[in-house]
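Supplementary notes (optional reading)

For those who missed the lab, this is the record we used. Protein: Mn2+/Fe2+ NRAMP family transporter. Length: 409 residues.
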Amino acid sequence: MEKETKKNGVIPSVKQSSRMSILLGAIFLMATSAIGPGFLTQTTVFTQQLAASFGFVILVSILLDIGAQMNIWRIMAVSEKRAQDIANLVLPGLGYFVAALIVLGGLAFNVGNIAGAGLGMNVLFGVSAETGALISAVIAVAIFLVREAAKVMDRFAQLMGIIMIGLTLYVVFTAKPPVGEAVVKSFVPDTIDMLAIVTLVGGTVGGYITFSGGHRLLDAGIKGKDALPEVTRSAISAIGVASIMRIVLFLAALGVVAKGLTLDSSNPPASVFQLAAGEVGYKLFGIVMWAAAITSVIGAAYTSVSFIRTFHKSIETYHRWIIVVFIIISTIIFISIGKPVKTLILVGALNGLILPISLGVMLVAAYKRNIVGDYKHPLWMTIFGGIVVIVMAYMGIYTLITQIPQLFS
């Protein structure tokens, strides 16, 4: 398919129906990659801390997410290159450095994703977290072994995304949150928590996440200047899907917190579902946790490997098997030694630097003719992206400085 002649930036064999399916797949792959165990926990914890004012944090983070993702997806599309190849053209060797950060972060966080999938299985069926993780890993591997793996991955991400939002929406109705107060505080908050904003941005478009959908579009042949309107809409839509889940979960948690109920610190999101809808809610949490975790396992594995596919012909040829090995290694680490907390903390701090580095590289690339040709990147997008780079770089460095001493104390 990649060798066919393009017309107006569109590969002829990509029919309109297939094209729409690919765009939806990219949207949901990115969104469900963002919606993982950490996403669920962060949202509930910050809601408990900030109450209705957390709405303001969500609003600001959505704007920053859009600024980062639009820049990255558009520049990859117009250059028709993956992020690591663009980085190597900006500065030789930089692409290998970014790829190493992505793969390291993706592998470490995939251990947490596998753990989350195991926890979801534990809630639903009473099996041990380790057994649940093993079953989930088999399902994830099976998706990449089927003949049309990309299509199956797209459909699976869409199905899981709809299920997560739908079930959480049910919990919102049972929790009966003060929606009016949430709307007011989203624009006039009692307090502004900058760390919460940066945490949400990092959790939505940090690390490998923002590249998952962008690389999926490239792999499917949706690229070039004529594809930019579609790419831009897809970038915004992906943030929209992830944000809908964030808002719905926020409202569910707010409904519980507003009643004066206390969330269990060992598993805050499970508390929200259980306190709002009883035992049924707890089982629904199991489904949502499993769906969030398994889609993040798939997104992390697919995107991490996509960052090394162009480095050697053999990697490109056997990339699906490398994805399978990536998932298996993540599962073995979890089953054998559990969740490596210190490693996750360190890589989490490093992940905070991936977005400003990768986005910064993209903004530089947008003005290099050998990368984007005669494409003119909108100035307002550059300014928007620059603000995200500065804010995330500051907080990423701050996190590294504060976390590393704790690791070795």
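If you only remember one thing from this example: The mean pLDDT is 88.
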